[in-house]
Amino acid sequence: xxxxxxxxxxxxxxxxxxxxxxxxxxxxxxxxxxxxxxxxxxxxxxxxxxxxxxxxxxxxxxxxxxxxxxxxxxxxxxxxxxxxxxxxxxxxxxxxxxxxxxxxxxxxxxxxxxxxxxxxxxxxxxxxxxxxxxxxxxxxxxxxxxxxxxxxxxxxxxxxxxxxxxxxxxxxxxxxxxxxxxxxxxxxx
Length: 189
Fold this sequence. Notes:
By secondary structure, the chain is of the alpha+beta class. It has helices at 3-9, 23-34, 53-58, 68-71, 89-96, 101-119, 132-139, 176-179; strands at 45-50, 79-86, 123-127, 145-154. 29% of the residues are buried.
């Protein structure tokens, strides 16, 4: 699959079949993250692969009270990858200059995982609703790591079509002219 097809085919899948994802495919997805670009090639990320169903079932309970219903679908996923970064000296220097490079680095790596999973026919959903302290306790995350996001993965419960993984229709997207400027903000491209 070419990258543009994966980008167009990808959807946020929230209903999964009970089929487990094969270890070889999980390793391919993680390899896509390993090869991602990072600021100063620091590669300050760490990914926790959660495949133990009783632990996965507890992840929605870590979310803030008003958001738990939104992330309840996670309980039925066969796999969750938790993206973290190392809080190192370069992280603090970047924060002083107003840049969150490590946050962006992990996000890029997780995006590459999303596209790799899509190519393999595996559905994903990027999740930002979680309570870091509760999630940190549940997964025994060391204090030197900051949790960025969760990537929920599984084979879609619904069949895929030529248009999308899991047969999920596309969501509306803004037109390019609404999100792109040329040279200066507001000049049309």
